[in-house]
Write a structure and sequence with these properties.
Number of strands: 10
Structural class: alpha/beta
Strand order of the largest sheet: 6-7-8-3-9-10
CATH class: Alpha Beta
Shape: globular
Length: 234
């Protein structure tokens, strides 16, 4: 069953049109990757799901229309977002940043904190440290953990590997895989690092200049010579 359905989505920043009739589905329990070059519209797609752009078209979560809703309402409906630039509060502690992510929660905040610390033990060690003093990898962990504090049905992750060392990327991949396999979380990843996306996603959508050019399973796309040469580097 499709958890997320996007139909003929166009997105605008003022008069500029960034997405052109994008349609895709994300099945419940899946990890899906949106890949493509810088400027393809990957971040715009995730921003549009979160109600951060002007759009035409339809975005549905479990059949419920999201377009026109506020970002706060979209979060309450079950979507968590870890944006590309993290957008953390730099002079607040790690723990306070996580608690900001739990603003929609009424109960189980301590349980959610414990889950975040289990997934990212370093955040428990750094819980009283200002996020401005963390490494890039640690800030990315805070961003992911903050999104998880909303207890989402669907997690959107934008460029989680940008500027990070391979070891940190592998650690983040392991956490995302654990979230999917152990907790059943559905994940949509926008990623320029195709190899990273391939290690996690079952299905890929290739986005170029605001349009879906091709889609399919990782195995299918790897077997396509033209796609393989253009995106997978072999």
């Amino acid at each position: 069953m499709a958890l997320l359905e996007i139909d003929k989505l166009s997105a605008f920043y003022g008069m500029a049109r960034s997405l052109h009739d994008v349609s895709l589905e994300v099945e419940e329990g899946a990890i899906v990757g949106i890949i493509g070059p810088n400027g393809a519209g990957k971040s715009t797609l995730l921003d549009s799901i979160m109600g951060l752009t002007e759009i035409d078209g339809s975005i549905r979560l479990k059949g419920q229309e999201l377009s026109g809703q506020s970002t706060a309402a979209i979060v309450e409906n079950g979507i968590g977002y870890a944006p590309e630039r993290a957008n953390l509060f730099p002079f607040m502690s790690v723990e306070d940043n996580l608690l900001v992510g739990a603003y929609t929660a009424r109960t189980d905040i301590e349980t959610r904190l414990a889950t975040a610390h289990d997934l990212f033990p370093v955040l428990k060690e750094r819980r009283n440290q200002e996020t401005a003093t963390l490494s890039g990898g640690e800030r990315q962990m805070v961003s992911l953990a903050r999104a998880l504090m909303t207890d989402p049905k669907l997690l959107l992750v934008d460029e989680p590997t940008i500027g990070l060392a391979p070891k940190v990327c592998a650690d983040i991949a392991a956490v995302l895989k654990r979230l999917n396999e152990e907790l059943g979380l559905t994940i949509l990843i926008a990623e320029q690092n195709v190899n990273f996306a391939m290690t996690l996603a079952q299905h890929l959508f290739v986005l170029e200049t605001g349009e879906i050019r091709i889609s399919g399973t990782v195995e299918t796309l790897k077997d396509d010579a033209n796609v393989s040469d253009a995106y997978f580097g072999h």
